[in-house]
Amino acid sequence: MSEGKASEAEASADEAKARPPSQGGRSKFVEEGQGVREAPADHEGVDGLVCPITGQPIVIRYAGVYKSFGDFKVLRGLDLCIPKGKITAIIGRSGTGKSVTIKHIMGLLRPDEGRIWVGDEELTAMSDRKLRTVRNRFGVVFQNAALFDSMNVFDNVAFPLVEHTRLGRREITTKVQQLLAQVGLAGSDSKTPSELSGGMRKRVGLARALVRDPDYILYDEPTTGLDPILAAAMDQLIVDTQESRPDITSVVISHDMPAVLRTAHKICMLVDGVVLHQGPPSYFKDSDDPLVRQFVAGSLEGPMTV
């Protein structure tokens, strides 16, 4: 699994390097480091920090994070706080750094400058070996599910337990079957990924992400490729998962605004490598800001051009 995630990070870097430098050289809307800041710049870590939007303690924090690939500047002084036990959505146009942002909290990428905390641990000062232990606290639902085609549903979900725990077969079987029932796939154990619809594959991906009881779960474009009905069902599953596991902290990367408005407790909008707008769904529904209005409406009319 870690090799696959590393390959995704390398592909992201290669893609960014291929873009013209002018895309990241100078901001169109906001200067470097001038985004929203929830925590004082001189505050160390996350202790004592509370998200004013959700009222929950902060458990993940980016402080002044910069990341470039060659001449292309992706993150430009990012300040971002993720509250415990809630769904935080990170939105923005393609190429604004959403995927690069979440790769940093798993240590798949390291910032050029700035600091990142996951709980009490600062990732930017960690060895690769210690980072692997932090990754074990995360579950990931990949955009295309990333199932093993050679394995059936049961073995795909069981894989993290087989590889990283000493649980016996009976315990693994019980846990996998419970999770498949929770995501609406009871009785699908023996099916192969090729026999599943896109929505079913994503449900298997969610079951696998939850199988080790992570503290954090990352959703990478969870509704991409789904029709509106399946997308709504996936949204409800994300909400149900959060409600059934209130201590888990969820981060959703998306540009599907109807889905984000249905599911998120906090929404952060990335523009030019910083958080330019953040708030509850009501903020984005009611905002008069032209950037927000254009993005939420998916309109060609507005300050952002194609």
N→C terminal distance? 35 Å
Approximate helicity band: 25-40%
CATH superfamily heading of the largest domain = P-loop containing nucleotide triphosphate hydrolases
Domain count: the total is 2
Derived structural class = alpha/beta
Query: Globular, elongated, flat, extended or rod-shaped: what is the shape?
Result: globular
Task: Give the biggest sheet.
Answer: 6 strands, mixed
Topology:
Elements: H1 2-18, H2 22-25, E1 58-69, E2 72-83, E3 87-91, H3 98-105, E4 113-118, E5 121-122, H4 128-135, E6 138-141, H5 153-164, H6 169-182, H7 198-210, E7 216-220, H8 228-244, E8 249-253, H9 257-263, E9 266-271, E10 274-279, H10 281-286, H11 290-297
Parallel strand pairs: 3-8, 3-9, 6-7, 7-8
Antiparallel strand pairs: 1-2, 1-4, 4-5, 9-10
Helix pairs in contact: 5-6, 5-7, 6-7, 8-9
Folded structure, characterized:
By secondary structure, the protein is of the alpha/beta class. The protein has two domains: 1-17 and 33-137 and 216-306, P-loop containing nucleotide triphosphate hydrolases (Rossmann fold, 3-Layer(aba) Sandwich); 142-213, no CATH class. Helix content is 37%, strand content 21%. It has helices at residues 2-18, 22-25, 98-105, 128-135, 153-164, 169-182, 198-210, 228-244, 257-263, 281-286, 290-297; strands at 58-69, 72-83, 87-91, 113-118, 121-122, 138-141, 216-220, 249-253, 266-271, 274-279. The strands form two sheets. It has a six-stranded mixed β-sheet, sandwiched between helices. Helix 8 links the parallel strand 7 and strand 8 (249-253). Helix 5 (153-164) crosses helix 6 and helix 5 runs parallel beside helix 7. The longest helix has 17 residues, at 2-18. The chain is globular and about 55 Å long.
